[in-house]
Amino acid sequence: MKPKLNASNAVAALMCAALILLPVYSAATGNIFILTLFTRIVIFALAAASLNLIMGYGGMMSFGHAAYLGIGGYAVGILAAEGIGSGFIQWPVALVVSALFALLIGALSLRTRGVYFIMITLAFAQMAYYVASALSRYGGDDGLTVYKRSDFAGLINLSDRNQFYYLCLACLFGGLYLIWRIVNSRFGLVVQGVRSNEQRMQAIGFHANRYRLVCFVISGTICGLAGALLANNTDFVSPAVMYWTRSGDLMVMVILGGMGSLFGPVIGAIVYLLLEELLSQFTEYSGLILGPVLLLIVLFARGGIMGLLGRMRRG
Amino acid sequence: MYLVVEQLLNGLQFGLLLFLLAAGLTLVFGIMDFVNLAHGSLYMMGAYFAATFVAWTGSFVLGALLALGATLLLGIALEYVALRHLYGRDHLDQVLATFGLILFFNDAVRLIWGPAGLALPLPTWLTVPVQIIPGVYYPAYRLMIIVVALAVAALLYLVVMRTRVGMLIRAGASNREMIGALGINIKLLFTLVFGLGAALAGLAGLMQAPILTVQIGMGENILILAFVIIVIGGIGSIRGVFMAAIFVGIIDTMGRAFLPDLLRKVLSGAAASTAAPALSSMLIYLLMAIILVLRPEGLFPAAKR
User: Fold this and answer.
1) pLDDT digit string, tens, across residues A89-108
2) Does B275 touch chain A (CB under 8 A)?
């Protein structure tokens, strides 16, 4: 299908161009800080996009999505600590473990709906948090330092700032492309159909929960990749990555940008993390402003930033 | 044996505190269909108010009462300014808005009281151990928590089941539109219920404060426990929440107290000392997962609407 030229697509296109050109700007101005900041933003954008797949398209309000960030991160960190530094092993392990975790908690959680689902995903993420806190061999509460970034046999050097940024960006674009393909496939349409009316989809012969579960697992796996990137970015992984406020942050990014729109979570991640960064530059008490801003967004800007852009076009 | 009795009482006391917190949450959820993550912040504010007012007045009881009033007013103000506009919205909107409130309250507390925690000292008459059965002593303060919380639970039961306001609350829980149509001022009722929930959270916070320190974020962990309780007990059911709270309080406390020793008997020392803290922290969540899988509506689901 041919993309339409409207405000939200224009913003998305501009944003992608800006993200691609960012290292050039950074190199030209010598501003290294902006590149490290945006590496982090791009990673969180990938995590938020994966959450958007189940939340925005699947109607599954997971409040435990940060668990996969931690699982992906710990897979990299633990393997590195055990002397397995190859990314060709670390990353597939991160993805597989995230997928298995998603399969397990998805199979249990999807028996419930609504607020119960929000709470049970939260509970599972807290369990993962406590397990990580108890891993005394791998730092326990204090977290685990990743002394060497994943090694891709000379193919790409993760310690190089620019290469790592482009790797993260490639993962983000790859993830978005995958999500776009999924959402517009037959499978994606069934998942969205289940979100709108489960009974009806059941009645015409779709096994609603199977579709939901597969979608849940795909989302968790993508977020596990973001976790592997995050551990490489910070050279560190700790239980705090999985703490429930992290899951809350991811939800905020999705809703802020616009749930159920492909680029919404990316914009949400950029705006949220930039806002956090800017506020922390001139005040220690960023929550005093960020909190009410969230409240106002919920009260007055339904559909997030993408929703606002969509309304702009319609006037 | 004495240790078991003591830990059982500790579990009961913790469970009753959790009940106070969860009761407010379930009232608000059951009646207004509103998910309030900021409930934990009200708990924290109760503790901070108490620490301030006790230091100010020099009297524990007077300070506690003032703190209770302050939390009640704060709850009402919060409902009036912001939260009443979120009723009838998607649960997700409510989660997000109240998540914003948590960020706000945490930094507001840091600005006003500073990042370090506060201590809430007990008056001497509450620090003596009391002999409950021959040979078993128990701290007077913890005993007082049990008594106060039980009294509040009984009072709550009487108010909800035996008074006119309680009747309206129950009616509101089963059909909001209908009691509005019957000419009841539902906005006022909601504000009152929210204030009551806030006061209960504040009470839990200020009673817990002398046992733990008063610090930022103290409401967050316990809020999740309260949610677990509501989910186990069945959303909107006060009786279910009461049972689930005591159940969770006792299991959590006993797990932390005895699981390490039990595991040491089964596993090797090193494996046990790794597994025990994780397992005892996870116990409640594990329990919740099992219950939700077996009974997705909780143990004591409120009557279907």
Assistant:
1) 999 999 999 999 999 999 98
2) yes
